[in-house]
Amino acid sequence: MGSDRIWYGAYGSNVLEARFLRYIQGGSYGPNNAEHVGARDNQQPGPTSPIVHGPWSLSFGLSSERWGGGVAFLNPHIDEGACVRCWDITAEQFMDVAAQENGLRPGDVQLDIAEVREAGELQIGDSWYSRIVHLGDFHGQPLMTFTSSKSVEPRAPGEPYLAVILNGFLEAAPSQLSQHLDRLMRARGVDSAWTREALIELAKLET
């Protein structure tokens, strides 16, 4: 792969391919979701989208009316065995996804990937997902994500949001239901509000 490609590490609703592709190709995911412009380059991600485990933690906080509860955030400095699903996209596509996640237009976010790799992270504003983080390198490409620059109080996620996340991880690794459940049950916001049995039911929902 060329040096202009990166792995985007998704851990929230973008874990599910149909949802993530709205940020690349445009359109809306489901009746209650906003219409997305899509990236300037709408080519499909690379053919593999592996799950990568790291010394990170997953938590849910703030509140999304669209998703009916808390939304996901990754802390890159707390080791609680979280993981991300990696999408093989261009650096420009990653910038456009980050822009859309922060209420901006494709092209509004311009990053020097080498600079972010060296610094470890970069702030692009003060919205929910304005902290760009380099999680390391994976198979010769930078592994990048975005998260909050502030710690958030735990808040339980709603059923539609958790269903998208769980089914996205199952899409990537269908034989690992138990491991997916274990990781979600460790996440703040899920641990005190959901049971393992309730999560299993979400794996049967159509997304």
Overview of this structure, please?
With 207 residues, the protein is α+β, with helices and mostly antiparallel strands. The chain contains six helices and ten strands; from the N terminus they run βαββββββααβββααα. A six-stranded mixed β-sheet has the order 4-7-1-10-9-8.
Tell me the layout of helices and strands.
Layout: E1 5-10, H1 17-25, E2 27-28, E3 35-36, E4 51-53, E5 57-64, E6 69-75, E7 83-90, H2 91-101, H3 113-119, E8 121-123, E9 131-138, E10 141-147, H4 159-172, H5 177-186, H6 196-202
Parallel strand pairs: 1-10
Antiparallel strand pairs: 1-7, 2-3, 4-7, 5-6, 8-9, 9-10
Give a short overview.
With 207 residues, the chain is α+β, with helices and mostly antiparallel strands. The chain contains 6 helices and 10 strands; from the N terminus they run βαββββββααβββααα.
For the record, the CATH class is: Alpha Beta
CATH fold topology: Hypothetical upf0131 protein ytfp
CATH superfamily: Gamma-glutamyl cyclotransferase-like
How many alpha or pi helices?
6
**Largest sheet composition:** 6 strands, mixed
What structural class do the secondary elements suggest?
Answer: alpha+beta
Q: Taking Cα atoms only, what radius of gyration do you get, to the nearest Å?
A: 16 Å
Anisotropy-based shape: globular
Kindly report how far apart the N and C termini lie: 31 Å
Q: Largest sheet, order of strands side by side?
A: 4-7-1-10-9-8
Stretches where pLDDT falls below 50 for ≥5 residues?
none
Bin the strand percentage. Answer: 25-35%
